[in-house]
Design brief:
The complex is a heterodimer. Chain A is about 40% helix and about 10% strand. By secondary structure, chain A is of the alpha/beta class. In chain A, α12 crosses α14. Chain B is about 30% helix and about 5% strand. In chain B, strands 1-2 form a two-stranded antiparallel ribbon. Classes of the chains: A alpha/beta, B mainly alpha. At the A-B interface, α12, α13, α14 and α15 of A face α1 and α2 of B.
């Protein structure tokens, strides 16, 4: 080894990496440092755990922090790294929404009805994380059973937005979004049933991907609305999200809706070249109620895509305004049947009553107000005499929404628009008004009905300094296309580099 | 427009096996009625002859039953299965008596 090489070799870089705050690294930067031997997973994990201790009493993103387990997993990852293994995510500390079963680690779905539940198995995607060598930092807060858009319906506590502690982080995966934005995890899993990954990503200035329905296994994920639920991924950059997605997507024989199609090389698809990409802008996504500053930022982002060579055209998704009532009926109907399993027999607490039925009814009174309301509405929509009027009509309406997307994707590769009509709202502002809360999801939930994929990428800030997201929607299984479009946009802008000063 | 009666709310709660307080019944009476008013906009749509979509995966792959191979595989150990149960006895989940044995 020559003198010059020695001076710029690993030992000098090791000093450099250690002298800086490791939590400021992106996932892919950390991975490079781990692979180069400049830092250990134990040191990176300790940095994250220290950061959680320092700021999470204000943000409240975690329901459970698994410190001991994390350090054990980090030490094991360091051994694998030392032995020369270079698998994706090896030694990278990540967080998982408390909707995913984690073997030996409490899983609550944000509900009192699952208090004390310790799953005997991992969700498929949690196993994938473990195989990849990722380190589990803990379980993040969620709206109860993912029912909400602000993380305020959690039975435990509300999560605060790292950009403004008086505001919500979005939801339902608000804990995961706040943890990643607050540099308390390098990436995280969420679930997206109507926008629960994309909307909090936009509120927190990070990237959030909701893949095609069936692309990631739902096995071991607490069910809300089974035909709409999909695992999603948060990261601070498009490359970070892609790395986590690449390592955990794929077929699972235990999920009958899992798609048995090959997983392409998403990382290789991030070329940054979007010349000729056909981008459709739906006129129905720029309507009254869309905040002016959000519109300005999103339109500027679309112009940026044009500057990068994309071919922008106006399109129509004519039934967009019906997506919310359709979604409302389908989601609550599915929730009412999915949540029938919580009867205090096999898991969770039991509230004793006079007889079996009385015990079940009293136990189920442990559900929170929003959850009970959705169970009631879904039960009504499915009940004799009302099925055709409500659930039946919603299923037919869903066909119209799918037809809208199919027509649009005959002419364009990507659909671009806002993620949410506003930036982050204040805690308590909409908590008792579920219709107002649902309006936060009007631009995100149509794609859940059609099963296609979408993401949010940072695209600006409003006058209060609150983040704004650009939504890119792709046809089914076209994740590579939207990830590359987001990557091209991200490389051309600096929004994603801004970080919140917590409590500052 | 369309308001649910207290009895209707109680009936739904019974179907859903939810014990509600009187305050909750009053609250849900209003809230659920409001939502039903809102979703009534679906009646504006011409849905005649339109097939329903219960599961969007149907337009990705042919909808068919998914069967696993009929192979015996290990199950979770009994103690782990029962670990989360509020009450269990003789390797079974325990509930209150359903049938009177008199």
């Amino acid at each position: 080894m020559g003198v010059q090489e020695a001076m710029t070799g690993p030992s000098v870089l090791f000093f450099f990496v250690n002298a800086m705050d490791l939590t400021t690294l992106t996932l892919t930067e950390l991975r490079d440092a781990l692979w180069a031997g400049q830092v250990t997973s134990v040191v990176a994990t300790e940095a994250m755990l220290d950061r959680i201790v320092a700021v999470d009493n204000e943000v409240k993103s975690y329901l459970t922090v698994t410190d001991d387990l994390a350090l054990e997993q980090a030490a094991a990852a360091d051994k694998r790294l030392a032995a020369g293994e270079r698998t994706p995510l090896l030694g990278v500390p990540v967080a998982v929404k408390d909707m995913f079963c984690t073997r030996g680690v409490a899983t609550t779905a944000g509900s009192k009805i699952l208090e004390g539940f310790v799953p005997p198995y991992n969700a498929f995607v949690v196993d994938k994380l473990a195989e990849a060598g990722a380190v589990l930092l803990g379980k993040t807060n969620t709206d109860e059973f993912a029912m909400g858009s602000s993380t305020e319906t959690s039975a435990y506590f509300a999560t605060h937005n790292p950009w403004d502690l008086e505001r919500v982080p979005g939801g339902s995966s608000g804990g995961s979004a706040a943890a990643v934005a607050g540099r308390m995890a390098y990436a995280a899993f969420g679930t997206d049933t109507g926008g629960s990954v994309r909307q909090p990503a936009s509120f927190c200035n990070i990237v959030g991907l909701r893949p095609t329905y069936g692309r990631m296994s739902r096995w071991g994920v607490v069910a809300y609305a089974s035909s709409l639920d999909q695992v999603g991924v948060f990261g601070r950059t498009v490359a970070d999200v892609t790395a986590m997605f690449q390592a955990t997507a794929g077929f699972d024989p235990r999920d009958s809706t899992s798609l048995n199609v090959p997983v392409p090389n998403y990382e290789a698809a991030l070329t940054g070249d979007i010349r000729g990409l056909r981008v459709g802008v739906p006129k129905e996504y720029f309507i009254e109620g869309l905040d002016g500053e959000v519109e300005t930022a999103v339109r500027a982002a679309i112009n940026q895509l044009a500057d990068l060579g994309a071919d922008i055209r106006e399109i129509s998704l004519p039934h967009s305004r019906y997506a919310l009532p359709i979604y409302y009926l389908i989601a609550t109907a599915e929730a009412s049947t999915n949540l029938a399993r919580y009867d205090g027999v096999r898991y969770g607490p039991r509230v004793a009553g006079a007889d079996v039925i009385d015990s079940v009814q009293k136990t189920r009174a442990l559900f929170g107000a929003e959850t009970k309301k959705r169970i009631m509405l879904g039960t009504y929509a499915l009940s004799t005499g009302y099925y055709d009027e409500y659930y039946g009509k919603a299923l037919q309406g869903r066909t119209l929404i799918i037809n809208d997307f199919n027509k649009a994707f005959a002419d364009v590769d990507v659909i671009a628009g806002p993620v949410s009509p506003t930036t982050a709202f204040k805690l308590g502002e909409k908590v008792n008004d579920s219709l107002a809360l649902f309006l936060a999801d009007i631009f995100t939930l149509p794609l859940n009905l059609s099963a296609s994929c979408g993401l949010s990428v940072p695209c600006g800030f409003d006058g209060r300094g609150l983040p704004i997201g650009l939504q890119l929607i792709g046809n089914t299984l076209q994740e590579a296309t939207i990830l590359n479009a987001a990557f091209a946009y991200e490389q051309a802008t600096e929004w994603h580099l801004r970080q919140p000063v917590i409590g500052g | 427009m369309m308001a649910l009666t207290k009895d209707e709310v109680q009936k739904i709660a019974h179907l859903a096996r939810l014990a509600l307080t009187d305050e909750e019944v009053a609250e849900y009476q209003h809230q659920i009625s409001d939502i039903l008013d809102y979703v009534a906009m679906l009646s504006e749509l011409d849905l005649a002859d339109l097939p329903p979509t219960a599961h969007a995966v149907g337009h990705l792959v042919a909808q068919q039953n998914v069967m696993r191979a009929d192979i015996v595989a290990p199950s979770l150990p009994m103690d782990e299965v029962l670990h989360n149960a509020p009450q269990h006895a003789q390797n079974q989940f325990q509930i209150q008596t359903v049938l009177d044995d008199s």
